[in-house]
Amino acid sequence: MEIKKLKYFAGGQWIESKTDKYMDIYNPSTGEVQAQTPCCTEEEVNYAVECAKKAYPGWSDTPVFKRVQILYRFRELLEEHMDELTELVAREHGKVWSEAKGDILKVKEPLELACGAPSLIMGESLRDTSSGYDTTLYREPLGVFAGIIPFNFPGMIPMGWMTPICIACGNTIVLKAASMTPMTCMRLAELWQEAGLPDGVINIVTCTRNEANILLEHPDVKGVSFVGTTNVGRHIYSTAAASGKRVQCLCEAKNHALVLEDAALERTARGIINSSFGCAGERCMALPVVVAQESIADELVSYIVKFAKELKIGPAYDKESKLGPVVSAAHKEKVIGWINKGIEEGATLLLDGRNTVVEGYENGFYVGPTILDNVTEEMTVGTREIFGPVLCIKRVKTFEEGLAIMNNNPFANGSVIFTQSGYYAREFAKRTDGGMVGVNVGIPVPVGIFPFNGHKLSFFGDLHTLGKDGFRFYTESKTVTTRWFDEEEMKAKEVDTWDGSVGGDLK
Amino acid sequence: MEIKKLKYFAGGQWIESKTDKYMDIYNPSTGEVQAQTPCCTEEEVNYAVECAKKAYPGWSDTPVFKRVQILYRFRELLEEHMDELTELVAREHGKVWSEAKGDILKVKEPLELACGAPSLIMGESLRDTSSGYDTTLYREPLGVFAGIIPFNFPGMIPMGWMTPICIACGNTIVLKAASMTPMTCMRLAELWQEAGLPDGVINIVTCTRNEANILLEHPDVKGVSFVGTTNVGRHIYSTAAASGKRVQCLCEAKNHALVLEDAALERTARGIINSSFGCAGERCMALPVVVAQESIADELVSYIVKFAKELKIGPAYDKESKLGPVVSAAHKEKVIGWINKGIEEGATLLLDGRNTVVEGYENGFYVGPTILDNVTEEMTVGTREIFGPVLCIKRVKTFEEGLAIMNNNPFANGSVIFTQSGYYAREFAKRTDGGMVGVNVGIPVPVGIFPFNGHKLSFFGDLHTLGKDGFRFYTESKTVTTRWFDEEEMKAKEVDTWDGSVGGDLK
Amino acid sequence: MEIKKLKYFAGGQWIESKTDKYMDIYNPSTGEVQAQTPCCTEEEVNYAVECAKKAYPGWSDTPVFKRVQILYRFRELLEEHMDELTELVAREHGKVWSEAKGDILKVKEPLELACGAPSLIMGESLRDTSSGYDTTLYREPLGVFAGIIPFNFPGMIPMGWMTPICIACGNTIVLKAASMTPMTCMRLAELWQEAGLPDGVINIVTCTRNEANILLEHPDVKGVSFVGTTNVGRHIYSTAAASGKRVQCLCEAKNHALVLEDAALERTARGIINSSFGCAGERCMALPVVVAQESIADELVSYIVKFAKELKIGPAYDKESKLGPVVSAAHKEKVIGWINKGIEEGATLLLDGRNTVVEGYENGFYVGPTILDNVTEEMTVGTREIFGPVLCIKRVKTFEEGLAIMNNNPFANGSVIFTQSGYYAREFAKRTDGGMVGVNVGIPVPVGIFPFNGHKLSFFGDLHTLGKDGFRFYTESKTVTTRWFDEEEMKAKEVDTWDGSVGGDLK
Amino acid sequence: MEIKKLKYFAGGQWIESKTDKYMDIYNPSTGEVQAQTPCCTEEEVNYAVECAKKAYPGWSDTPVFKRVQILYRFRELLEEHMDELTELVAREHGKVWSEAKGDILKVKEPLELACGAPSLIMGESLRDTSSGYDTTLYREPLGVFAGIIPFNFPGMIPMGWMTPICIACGNTIVLKAASMTPMTCMRLAELWQEAGLPDGVINIVTCTRNEANILLEHPDVKGVSFVGTTNVGRHIYSTAAASGKRVQCLCEAKNHALVLEDAALERTARGIINSSFGCAGERCMALPVVVAQESIADELVSYIVKFAKELKIGPAYDKESKLGPVVSAAHKEKVIGWINKGIEEGATLLLDGRNTVVEGYENGFYVGPTILDNVTEEMTVGTREIFGPVLCIKRVKTFEEGLAIMNNNPFANGSVIFTQSGYYAREFAKRTDGGMVGVNVGIPVPVGIFPFNGHKLSFFGDLHTLGKDGFRFYTESKTVTTRWFDEEEMKAKEVDTWDGSVGGDLK
Question: Which chain B residues in 404-463 lie under 8 Å from chain D, judged by CB atoms?
């Protein structure tokens, strides 16, 4: 059977790439190749930027109220196609049904935020800043943006985080979709077309890193939004900066949860299961480390192990499955390598997911839930991002010791405390380095009206994705200071000269 | 006579540098060396960062209401010392009295903005984002910032733009003062001490570029604010980005004013004189190019030449002087080089300031007002930053032609239109690339409650200095999502698990 | 043929009133009665409040993200039913097709604003307002609101201005629909039901003033929004205030446009036609007075008369009609009375709409476009609200004279200037008493992201409808100040006692 | 000895009243009359309004940056005169030194907020709301405001709450000072003069209720801010509403604290002492009711009684005193009447302050700390405002029972919970009717950047004093919608006519 070859999307057209290099897209649940996506050529990437640039004047000059009408229409299409899109995510990524559906719901949530663009891009005004001088600030779009996308949220990242606010503000965008999971993104682009989005406002390529670099240096690209590893993020921040762009890079994490002795243990354990093994651990807001207060550590761990064993492993699109495969064979090997490394470093293996086989899906990329106890700060398994269903347990005597361990970590996306105490909740929230804090909340991603605000090596830049930051990232401010003269003033010899930079307004 | 050797300032102490390299500080009005400032060593720069880091925990944990009390006190000291500070600026920089005073008034204006920090750093909150889940966002300080300062606003840039909001938000700062004009900055630091600022919150060094680079890569520096040339700005943005910092770089400009035929010509000409020759053209918001509509160009130019000739040239601290010297002998040579270049490129020299001599101040670095007519887009004299009292005239037939010439310029700080027409004012403000637009306003720097928002090669980064951007640049957001359980819920088997990244809040 | 008797709507049920008094609803285009609406009894009005109160706890406790899902769905239904709704407006009110459609579009615009409620009801937060004390502000709904509706915008006023933000914020509402035009409002309520709105969130009655007064004094009604005459508005403001409610009353107007001699005359005249005769003048943002600068007054007036004569008068639902009937026979008499009064007061009748008859619709309530020239400040016809297609011309020598005449008017909804001059536009906008100012814009109603902000006798209250004011009006703020203790602090003898009202936070 | 007769303050002059009626001002610590203040006549009150009206055009047209310079200067004078002002408060009101100082610190805090007016009165802007149409919103002052002041915070209420934001926004004000405590307010007015405030911006009268009513109906008064009893507040809201004014009335309270069994009992008791007996209970944010969970009620009460007995009672200006007199002999009688009433209603008198005599100050108006236990909902002593040092104890079994009792109260200024539990803190904050909530905070007045937001019968109006509400209350919004034409468009026959009220922007 011939394998389907995907096209790239530029200027409103689905175009067959001129490349002869294609990348395989697997169904991780079966291990089969289900399609192939092109390594777009340098010319094709440049062409996508050109299309975005061409679409910009018309789109940016469309009143924001009209622009968002298309977003509302896209929202309706999202709802109509929810099941189809969910299945697409499950098939290309391997996350189970509820998680795959969440990936699409997380397109809808930022979309709704972006529908509010007219309120949220308003500028500021003041009359008579000095007598006769008025100043008004406007927020304007910038031009073409680039989005560089990882494999793990094929819906949310390109079409929730990167696109809705960007285009609602009047910009156009070129997305470099994830090579392993580009299909959801592309299907969503078709729905955008159906919603009436003008050609060239959204463009999608897949390519290798070399061609992606074009986006970082292209003079017509005004900003870059990236989600991926910390090393690449740093490279992108620095490279795009060197060509004068604004940049936001959302990177790796190693989120810890501190469980204090007054926590609701069984309930906490259930929450941890979901947070640590959900999406097979392949998310930057996963919870791969639990820091347990010693007095309750044994009891907590026994709950966790018990619940982890109950997780039904199976193909993503089987609605009974609670844990699906990881995204690829290579990634499976990497995760197993980390488990081995953990054992080697001296951790205690409480539950071993390395040899997981799902009947009827023997070639799927499954890794079972894995629990390593007695992990210490010295072990890399407890400090580096694994991105798999591997949970490390660290044990501490006190709140202070736990907080210190957490803040020693170089990443700082999420951080969580489980407790009943108002005092420790407040103290933790204030003193943790984590940017998104949870109190009895395992995956403390805030709703999209707040920014997704990682700290330290989990983020490069200053304006985060979503929230009001999102609107700032995708607009630039312009101030207009005005002075008008009547007939008399036109002829005046003695003139007031606003001279802002010598305090003209203060004299 | 022994020349005074300045010290650096770290941890609240004025310390003599261990270096043997000192840089001369001239009085540009006389050409004499008035003091010397050290090339601080690598260790000394590191020590300044260390002091800032050490001061951070105590300062950031001081409630913002208490922090701003010190700002209020500093404001009183500024008013008390206004004349002394004005003279200091005039003596080290060479700008005339009203301009020098403006430099200090422009410390006060952002300071007053920073006094409002309690209102302006408030975060956001929403209860029941999902049933039982509340989210609150806080704006927290980041740690140590670095400020790298050019010679041209010895008061405003370090102590107006960089410091007040930075420290009001709870950060500490290391300033690399301008080698040619560090004295105002240092005197202001003394006043901060007098106002009660704790040791180490502000630290000041002078050094060469090598040592300044330490600040860009130091792991304890969380952000960098820079004002200077575009090439250096680009380097700083990229270098500091590579070490994960947030950055804002305010760079070169070549601001143009478009004068339409319905403008109030004489009044406009007076405004242009002030904007083009004020501060001897040494400011990024100067107006070095006038684009005149042909029908009125001759009349306009004749007014400009007439008024330019009337400018009294003299020493900065003589209150009669209307045009002072440029900052250094080298800079004088550079400006004269540009005038020569303009003539070479074919411009018409209407007024020649190259051979200006002020009686009694024969060694001062004076350049008289210089006007080059018939400058075209092809000439570098009309497109590159000169930073001297040199005005270029370009002539166009129409509004559209004028706008096009202006937008072709790679810089985009300020842009100005002179007209009586509401239509052209609106059209210009919308379509100009300039970030700070003036309508009948020569130097359209907005008051500090608005950001100083240059575009294109005049700025690198995304959050500008001052305005609400200022508070965003100097704070980082943290979200706290909370879920509490009562006794019943603690024991529940069926649990709701917020799972933000799979749309938990949307289910 | 039996005339249809409408029901009232309470608790999600359409209920036949127990009253025996019904009010006629006419089709103004034909003069026929098309339906009857009940004078609901005191008990029925109270029951509607009771239903709204009963629905409140569940609705207010539904997370705002879920509440707005129903608004999104209602928006889709609005689009689907656009033509049906437009026809309904045309048939009960008499405004022509494009205007009737506008009435429904003006439901959609505020609805879209209200969809953004999650962003717009966020509160504020600050940590360590004093050491250890944090404060967070939340915006909460209040309970039951009442809306009292005039006849002239049967869609926009109840379902655009009053309902969407009110319910998005978590409140419930009782609408007293207009007796003459309740059908659009009721049909829209059916669509709300179809969209999934819980029973009792919206309730609708029709009744006489006596029963409406119940809403002003009912202890369970927390706020009142009213649109209608100034006298009633004042009564409502005072009465509802006496029972402790928050109130907004949008009242009468007499908007003037000042036409300066540099205006684009023909274009201006076309704009005036639309503004003065659109909706047959039955809107508070109509333009019933033109103040013309003498130098161009004759030319301007001749254009206006010419274009007015060209207006095709006919039944509202005939898409060819440009001017429909007024709402009732009584109102027709009132308008004609005003024309007679104007003539009596000495105005010059340039165009007389009193004897307008439309063939085939001889019983329709038609009044043709009427123009009175040489109207002066002394004439009541030029200062009081007529609410019909009657345009008064006042003539002035100068801008200042025109502005003075306008500001002498006791009403201040909209005010307009037609000019090309940036100076006069700014001066007018600053100095006019009008709350909604137009520069070359005849009906300067801003889009709904801005408040509809009338001044003087055109408004009672302080928070206007729509814009961010809308969200303030429909929410109440609550601040929570928190201090937590650890084990040590719990036992402390020396205690810090926050004592906000003696400056505890400032010590 | 002749008793000093105070003057009133209008148009920058201190004027002797023409009245022959004067009201005594006591020193409550000694019971002696220390001065007399006039019952200003109707003409004098009208004159004060006239002065305020006359000052308005000049003051409102002064740029906000200049206006706040005077506020900064007044702030310096406040600091310089802190001790003098503190003593003045202590002498006329009777609160002890730290409380009297707090009264002045609470002038300074809102003043600092008001200094930030330039940032906080900025309006909003959007370009191309429809193609070619821009809208800008400005916040403008309204004119003359009136402030009506109670006796209990002679500094904070007139000069902290009512004046700084009012005048920073460009309004002028007439204050009706408290008859019993006008001297602090008047002294502060002198300092405003010294700070350079123009004549007529602040005006002060004292008078009886009849003359005060003038302010409610005067056509030149645009808004009224009132602090006092609920009955008067309701009258003022309704009366001022009837004449079209905006109004805010801050009224009575009966704040309760719920103490749960997990609270830090001793510490909580200390906090309660301060909150209940501070300012002799004469403040709307006092804590006159403690609702104790039965399991710990006895222990808690025994701590409270013990600490209450330790309070040193004495003259206000003796720095050793911890509890001063109440404001007047009449008020003392009233408070004692309430204690008698409580006993009569069946409460248990645990501590009796009725017969308190301070040696050497036998005629002072002293009431000692009084504690009534076993107070129930049925007793008026536990539900009505007493405004004296009388604490009622109510006992409940559960959190739910306690919350219900609190929400049954008709007042809702502050409400407090003492607990260690995050769950109960959140639940309480969400479900309490109180507008200002404390968690382990006895007097939960938030800092002035937040509004002072009472609910239910504790407040009439919708915009509270202070916070961002403060700036909304003292400004009115104006929107300006602009459309400009070029030469071609001026002549166009086909015209776009913005017609906001028929959805012109949506077509």
Answer: 421-423, 425-427, 430, 447, 449
Q: Choose among B159, B186, B157, B178: nearest CA to B4.
A: B186
The CATH code belonging to domain D256-439 is 3.40.309.10
Judged by a CB distance cut-off of 8 A, whether residue B505 touches chain C is yes
CA–CA–CA angle D112, D115, D118 (5° rounding): 145
Architecture of domain C256-447: 3-Layer(aba) Sandwich (3.40)
**Nearest CA to CA, how far is D488 from chain C (Å)?**
10
pTM over 0.90: yes
Residues 291-350 of B with CB under 8 A from A: none
Average pLDDT over residues C24-29: 98
Say which residues have a Cβ less than 8 Å from residue C360's Cβ, sequence separation at least 6. Answer: none
* Fold of the domain built from segment(s) D7-251+458-477: Aldehyde Dehydrogenase; Chain A, domain 1 (3.40.605)
Contact D441 C498 (CB under 8 A): yes
Smallest Cβ–Cβ distance between B502 and the set A279, A437, A501 belongs to A279
Cβ-based contacts of C423 with chain B (< 8 Å) = 420
CA–CA separation, C149 and C161 (whole Å): 10
CA distance C124 to C118: 13
Q: Is A268 helix (H, G, I), strand (E, B) or coil?
A: helix
Question: Nearest CA to A391 among A505, A469, A311, A477?
Answer: A311
Q: Is D483 on the interface with B (CB under 8 A)?
A: no
Please tell me which of the candidates B131, B136, B506 has its beta carbon nearest to residue C125.
B136
Query: Closest residue of C to B140, CA-based?
Result: C127
Q: Which residues pair with C255 in a beta bridge?
A: none
**Whether D483 and C130 lie within 8 Å, measured CB to CB:** no
D128: pLDDT strictly greater than 70? yes
pLDDT in tens, C457-504: 999 999 999 999 999 999 999 999 999 998 888 887 766 655 665 554
Looking at residue D493, what is its pLDDT? 73
Residue A23 exposed, middle or buried by CB count within 10 Å (0-12, 13-18, 19+): middle
A485 touches chain C (CB under 8 A): yes
Q: pLDDT by residue (tens digit) across C197-209? A: 999 999 999 999 9
If you search the block for the tokens 């009895």, which residue do you land on? A440
State the fold for domain A45-251+458-477: Aldehyde Dehydrogenase; Chain A, domain 1 (3.40.605)
pLDDT confidence of residue B83: 98
- CATH class of the domain comprising C4-251+458-477: alpha beta
Residue spans per domain, chain A: 45-251+458-477, 256-439
The H or E element spanning position C335 is helix C329-345
How far is it, in rounded angstroms, from Cα C239 to Cα C233?
Answer: 10
Q: Are strands A221-227 and A202-205 parallel, antiparallel or unpaired?
A: unpaired
Summarize pLDDT for A293-332 with one digit per residue, the tens.
999 999 999 999 999 999 999 999 999 999 999 999 999 9
* CATH code of the domain occupying B7-12+40-251+458-477: 3.40.605.10
CA distance A266 to A307: 10
Catalytic pick from C207, C279, C284, C392? Answer: C284
